[in-house]
Amino acid sequence: MRRTSILGGLLVVIAAMVLVAPQVAPAQQGIRVYVDGRLVNFDVPPTSIQGRVLVPLRGVFEQLGATVDYDAPSQHILATRGAQTVELTIGSRQARVNNAPRLLDVPAFTINGRTMVPLRFIGEALGASVQWIDASQTILIGTTGAAQASPPPPPATPPVSSTEISGRLVAVTTGENARIVVRHTGQDSTIIVTPATSISRYNVETNAGGSAALGMLQKGDQATATVNQKDEATKLVATYRVPPAAKIASVNKDTRTVTLSDGRTYTVMSDADITLNGQKSDFSALDAGRIALFSVIDGTTQAYEVHVSIPAAATPPPQTVLAPNITAPANGTTVGSSFTVQGTAQPGATVVVSVQGRLLGDTKQAQTTVGANGSWHMAITVNALPFIAFPYVVSAVQIINGTQSDPASVEVSVH
Fold first, then answer.
1. Considering the chain, what is the average pLDDT of its residues?
2. Taking the C-alpha atoms of 110, 111, 112 and 115 in order, what is their torsion angle to the nearest 10 degrees?
């Protein structure tokens, strides 16, 4: 029995050492940015989501000589470069450039605490020349009057061959042998997830999201994995869609079809996860007059998750709630086994914080009420291993009148 205990302990330590093996920085593998011919690296690199190239606003604007001010309670951003001004608000498509209104392709949103905006907005906002070179995944930005930089020479060594697999996520396995199963073109592909895999998850309607622990991915998510020749994912992006909740008008039990009071119709999959007032249930929970919130496969009306609630008299359907803001710890920092998570959210809201090992799935959770000044904080303690820095994802949601927001998240190392 003692030999088994010692062996188990050694396996835990070895697994933890594997998880903290050196990782390739996302900026070295992904999109490169040149400003007036100079290569620029960002703590949150540019990314491509749903065919749009998104860049960190502060990092690019400051490289162009602009100053950026951020008001956390209102999530309002003001950038100034000489006589030029740019104003925008996280979660809104509305912006102002030199006090004139502009409409973004997608709302400004945050990834790991950094505000991301569409690439073309950079040129519109500060009068810079912007060029996107798809073949080399390169952004060339030139300030006004500066000659457009030439594309950088190709890398000295050819990139590692990789393929992209997109489909519906049907299984997630965390732990030492982390795996996902993606269903595409009528077949299932099992993909290995390693400590070096870049993992993120986004709401396709609000663009909220960012770094994610593997255990935060859900069955039914639309997943896109960049896979190398060893069937290992170097990058994994999961997206999900949650249409607004509404009252159920009618239910067809034979076809498992649900029609809502606003005319939307969904088909509930046979293996869908269904809850009633937060408790696990089955299809019988879907009944006329109740409020339902459906998670659907992107591009379809097939629901793989349904949350049903029995409304109080005269209670309107829940409204969309924006994700809270995490101000500390900062993304990419190292913290001790006991640390404080703090941020801003709507006064009076309930904030729930989860701290989860990136692959192992061990989760600590705590909640608090947002103060009248819009700030919140709470202490978290996790089980850290001695002499080893362990990667964790810290995520936070806020709950207002029973409606939960998308998560905001940062990634830290616990030592």
1. 79
2. -40
pLDDT of residue 224: 92
Give 308-315's long-range contacts (Cβ < 8 A, gap of 24+): 308/248, 308/274, 308/275, 308/276, 308/277, 308/281, 309/276, 309/277, 309/402, 310/276, 310/277, 311/247
Phi, psi of 11 (to 5 degrees): -65, -40
Parallel, antiparallel or unpaired: strands 390-400 and 350-357: antiparallel
pTM over 0.70: no
Rounded Cα–Cα distance for residues 45 and 350 (Å): 31
**Do 190 and 179 form a contact (C-beta atoms < 8 A)?**
yes
**pLDDT (tens digit per residue) in 101-122:** 887 777 777 777 778 887 777 7
To which H or E segment does residue 246 belong?
strand 246-252
Distances (CA, A) of 375 to 72, 317, 338, 339, 398: 9, 27, 20, 17, 12
Residue with structure tokens 């997608």? 106
Measured CA to CA, the distance from residue 334 to residue 25 in angstroms comes to 16
Residue 354 and residue 363: Cα distance in Å, rounded? 7
Cβ neighbour number for residue 248 with a 10 Å cutoff: 17
